[in-house]
Amino acid sequence: MLTQLAIRDYAIVDTLDLELAGGMTAITGETGAGKSILLGALGLCLGERSDAASVRHGCERADLSARFDIAALPAARAWLTERELPADDCLLRRVVTASGRSKAWINGQPATVADLKALGEHLVEIHGQHAHQLLLREETHLRLLDDFAGNRAAVNALSETFRRWQATRKRLKQLSESGDEVQARRQLLRYQVEELDLLALGDEELATLEHEQEQLAHAEETLREAQHAAECCDNDEGGVLTLLNQAMHRLDPLPGSDRGALAEILAMLGEARIQVEEAVRELHRFADATELDPERLAWVESRLGEVHRIARKHHVMPEELPALHRRLQAELDGLEGGEHDLEALRAEVESLRDSWREQARSVGESRQQAAARFGKAVQEQLAFLAMGKARFEVEVSPRQSPQVDGMEEVRFLISANPGQPPRPLAKVASGGELSRISLAIQVVAARHSTIPSLVFDEVDVGISGATAEIVGQLLRRLGEQGQVMTVTHLPQVAAQAHHHLHIEKQAKRDTTLTRMALLDEAGRVSELARMLGGVNLSDRTLAHAREMLDASQQGAAH
């Protein structure tokens, strides 16, 4: 049950906090006052589509939240528990920014709009003011009958089986029809994979080959230059070491006052001689390690040539060949298993078809059994709404081919006058009759709903007089079973409510705001009088309103 609704900067509402109770709550106000704002805010909390127009002019964002008591809603608690969310309470929050973006939370945890919508299906059921127009569409008839029969879960399962069946059939058809193309592709892949298998190029091999090729190709030049460098350093006829030794020999015996400064220079020359000697040894070791291997060079260059040839053939870079090899192998593996896949797909198609048929048979039997009961229940409500002579029937007929929701078509038929055969609603009912038929159907559907919070948005359009009072009585009785909120223009309906919420539009300076308030008894009398007689309230109108309210509440007590 909806217990609280908080609205911040939404449409023309700046701040609103509503405490809501069980029973029937009438929502009234002058045309354009913003009654739809309340339902719009609730709808956003339940996952309806948002846009920037939701945000009050000049504000950065609209902030909306709805709190529900879910103690008597095991489906809602189970939904929360499955997602590891607290299940002792239910708070839905939606924030819409001026740019049109929105964020959502469930019990303080971030959620998607789809999550809000999925959970909302367990919390509130909304009957819109255009429900009678939807009744002219026969797909609506099937959904209402299924809801009445309690088929929602079974039809969802049936639809899922149908979608899997059709998807598998499509896959089987594609594989069967593309047999020649698949065979040609398989042969090409086998040849390409075998060629790459023979090449067997490793992921890092190309870089290794290129490095080795460079070393082998320049080995002779490298060896020659290393030997020459060593000879330049260690040569009896002008080598670096010989010259260093000569320089040190000339400086060493010099007498005089410069002996101290020369000692430092001699030390430097000594260190240089040591470094050169070490360099000569390293040059000899490098030359000894350098191999001249023409045969290895020829093999490496041949290997590189083959790698580049195959890369050009596949229009890839040489370093991409190992990855290409893996992709082609994976595709070939998939096609090689295709023959087995065909047999498996054929078996799966048959299994899904048989499963769908069994599910459809069960749903079809449920629809046939519920059709008469639904028709009878609606006809009883029509009699209550001054259409006692009307005859309402639910026609369930077989379809020519399987559909996602079963093998039945459902049509609501009505005969508004005795002696006339029942015909489809769109061809028989007048506007006023259609409104009453719609309300009768919605009342029957609501009575069989497992959702305790029902919202009726001007479903009494086209109804007046004594019938309007009966409509109010129907809605009140539904409210006694849970919670009913109804937007109405009819005082006869509003008088029947347990609670009365009034909405009005106020102009302040350069802005217009909507205000909502729960009326006390005196406020209810004034609002009913306004609904009866307009802006200028006479004593007679107020007395009539008082009488209407007293009679409605006393009648309800009995």
From TrEMBL:
Keywords: ATP-binding, Coiled coil, DNA damage, DNA repair, Nucleotide-binding. GO terms for biological process: DNA recombination; DNA repair; SOS response. Pfam families: SMC_N. GO terms for cellular component: bacterial nucleoid. Residues 206-236 form a coiled coil. This is DNA repair protein RecN. Gene3D superfamilies: P-loop containing nucleotide triphosphate hydrolases. May be involved in recombinational repair of damaged DNA. The keyword Hydrolase does not apply. The keyword ATP-binding applies. Residues 3-508 form the RecF/RecN/SMC N-terminal domain. GO terms for molecular function: ATP binding. Belongs to the RecN family. InterPro entries: DNA_recomb/repair_RecN, P-loop_NTPase, RecF/RecN/SMC_N.
